[in-house]
Amino acid sequence: MLIDIGANLTHESFRHDFDAVLQRATAHGVTRMVVTGASREGSEQALALARAYPDTLWATAGVHPHHAIDYDEATDARLRELAREPAVRAVGETGLDYHRNYSPREVQLQVFERQLAIAADLGKPLFLHQRDAHEDFLALLRRYRDKVPAAVVHCFTDTHDTLKDYLALDCHIGITGWICDERRGTHLREFVRDIPADRLMLETDAPYLLPRTVRPQPSHRRNEPMYLAHICAEVARDRGETVEVTAARSTGTAAAFFGLLPEASGA
Question: How confident is the model over 13-56, as pLDDT tens digits?
């Protein structure tokens, strides 16, 4: 049984067949999913889904760096309220993105720190995003890392040296279908085995990052949680493990990180 730690299930592409998406996920062994909150509105929607599908969905609450420019006092206050909800298991998606720079860098830094403070104040794990901003991201994270119980660098796509920096801070690492991309993800195959089993978690980042090695490729090109089983198989091969071992270990790690009870308990 697998846990998808990062699925953007509030995306409009899922509205017409949401229940079918969950059913397909379950049929492929993906029985629990964490719905990513990436804006104030998106975090509200993620919590609503988690409440509507208890024991299957949980949520995060945060503001992605793309939306940092929209962060205000009301947003900060609301995120603090959302993060206290039992179904919300982490603060984020938050971090820095200097690749797109949809929000000014100085604003991204301020908003990232405000969300780090929320996680520290409430004792919540962090669900983190970093792209082309490693040095600034690492410097700020270092100031808060010992104040939060856990942190996962979601959708890791960076270098081996960057991985070492995050592991040295006792961070978890989220691996997506990026590893299946022969154009830009082959470097991950070379060192995914270096991620300790108790730090490795799996995610789809659906509807984005459909694994390019899925056959047949769906005509709509939408990624969904059912494909986590495919990602697990690819990661297992690269780690030199059986699929069963990778699935069991990553699921156990994710359950511990997000405070989910074992599957058999129905939680």
Answer: 999 999 999 999 999 999 999 999 999 999 999 999 999 999 99
Q: Using CB atoms within 10 A of its CB, is residue 144 exposed (0-12), middle (13-18) or buried (19+)?
A: middle
Report d(CA 227, CA 156) in Å as an integer: 17
Q: What is the DSSP string of 40-60?
A: HHHHHHHHHHHHHSTTTEEEE
Domain boundaries, the chain: 1-36+173-180+195-267
List the one residue out of 43, 141, 138 whose CA is nearest residue 92.
Answer: 43
88-96 average pLDDT score: 98
Is residue 29 within 8 A of residue 229, CB to CB? The reply is yes
Residue indicated by tokens 């270990």: 249
Q: Which CATH superfamily is domain 1-36+173-180+195-267 in?
A: Metal-dependent hydrolases (3.20.20.140)
The encoded tokens of residue 205 equal 């980042």
Query: What 8-state DSSP symbol labels residue 67?
Result: G
User: Which tokens in the block code for residue 244?
Assistant: 């069963």
pLDDT at 265: 39
pTM metric for this prediction? 0.96
Structure tokens at 242: 């059986």
